[in-house]
Amino acid sequence: MGSLSVTLCAGAALAALLTPAAHAADAADAGDGGGVSVSPATPAPGTDITLRAADCAGKAAVATSAAFVSDVRLALVSTDGTLVGSGRVRSTATAGAHEVKVHCGADRRTGTLTVAGRTPPSARPAAPASPVAPVDAGGGGTARLTTATDDDGRTTGPGTAHTVTGLLLAGAAAVAVALRGARRRSGTE
């Protein structure tokens, strides 16, 4: 067996060993009640969450809670009967424990979601007053190419060379339009 195959097999074995432990840790951290676990265990209002319901009879379920923005649809993702779904905690959810009900077929499971308290505005990091990495905007980033700088370093508008070039291009376009119109009238086109 090549070294790549051995590495892949070892990685798969390690993942298989750690996966049940991770789900058990989620359930223990979330205050698992009746086979329903929530991750992260203590989300803040407005946070995305993942729900797991173990040993459901069906291939789909619906989880409801007053703390959710909307009902969470759970679907079968593995052969062990665990249903998984993602949802969001309401931004107006109050801190504390909220009941989560999962309806999977005729079965009913319940769990608890503990919403964390809000962070006071004074404890949040201050947002920068201006963009951290502003982009060159206007003309697709060509704004700096359309301005000229005088000897004092001041930005000035288009110079004489720009004006003459623009007039020459406009004149050439006008001549082309006039010639095409003349050809159409004479019927040579």
Descriptive notes:
- The structure is a single chain.
- With 189 residues, the protein is an alpha+beta fold.
- 29% of the residues lie in helices and 25% in strands.
- Strands 1-2-5-4-3-6-7 form a 7-stranded antiparallel β-sheet. The protein has a two-stranded antiparallel ribbon with strand order 8-9.
- The longest helix has 27 residues.
- It is elongated, with a radius of gyration of 33 Å.
Task: Report the helical percentage.
Answer: 25-40%
**What form results from the Cα inertia axes?**
elongated
- Please tally the helical runs, counting DSSP H or I stretches of 4 or more residues: 2
Distance between the termini: 74 Å
The fraction of residues in strands falls at: 25-35%
Uncertain regions: pLDDT < 50 for 5+ in a row? 6-33
Lateral strand order in the biggest sheet: 1-2-5-4-3-6-7
Counted beta strands:
9
Write the element-wise H/E pattern from the N-terminal end onward: HEEEEEEEEEH
The radius of gyration over CA amounts to 33 Å
Average pLDDT confidence is 74
Main beta sheet: strand number and arrangement?
A: 7 strands, antiparallel
Quickly give the structural class. Answer: alpha+beta
